[in-house]
Amino acid sequence: MTSHLALEASALVASALALEYTSLAANSYGRVACAALLSYDYLLTLHKEVELFWNWRFTGATALFMVNRYLVMIIRLVNLVGFMHMSNQVSACAIAAKVSLGFTLLQYIPWALFSGLRAFALSRYRSLSIFIFVLSVIPPAVNLSLYPLGFTGHHDPIFGFVIISRTCFLVADLLLILITWSTISRPRIIDRMSRGYRGHTSRFTLADVLLENGTMYFLVLLMFHSLHLILSMCSVHVALQSLSYGYVTIFTESFTTLLVSRFLLDLQEAHRNACDAEFESGTQGETSHSGTLIFERVIGSHNSSLSS
């Protein structure tokens, strides 16, 4: 009887170890894939970064872009270091895990700041922009609970942390896209949809960038956050408890970085086009300014405006 129980216990331990190894392997493959994706995108957009940010004066847009771009690259390097042989001591591994988590949570700050700035640029309501910023920083704040609670234990989806985090992200993204669609005039939206994604114009405006990039940003992250939430809820079911969904977060973070970087590059390019257009208009003595949306200093100018 005792030997039978011992065999069952060893079988359960072996099964748990195999499941944990499979989950860690999936996460590792995901991290390597995301690092390759970000490196490839970096090489594709480096010339635009040099042209639009390095050769212009340093502004808040430059700081936001650099932090978003290079902080994530540091995080990916730290993650790759984790593949190297490390100490078997629990304390050393705990320190490495805490440092990695700290960098991971830190990357959410520029994303939240960018969301708040977009809300303020479009709505001009400071309270609304602060609310969206708070919604965007709640998820990393929730994950800070790992520090006092420690890094051992069993994740319980019913406890609600995943639901809180993903719901806050979804609400913030939904508010942003509603503000974008309600602020930018309907004729412009119809015109952009009929012409396609910048396929028939050589010069696009700040409003075009906010509309097109904002919509793409919303749709992509809606897919990832919804998938994470669905897989988390499915793991509550006994038959699906072995379901691993942690890799979704890795891809969500990488695509968020990529989208924000592209967003800022396009905004900076549109701002540059606007400056060139104003210069040409000024030399011809023409001054025609219709309704505008102020994007403040995030674009790189105190008085930058986007034609609505």
Automatic annotation (TrEMBL):
InterPro entries: DUF6533. Residues 1-18 form the signal peptide. The chain crosses the membrane at residues 58-77, 89-113, 125-146, 158-184, 244-265. Residues 29-74 form the DUF6533 domain. Keywords: Membrane, Signal, Transmembrane, Transmembrane helix. The keyword Transmembrane applies. This is DUF6533 domain-containing protein. It comes from Lentinus brumalis.
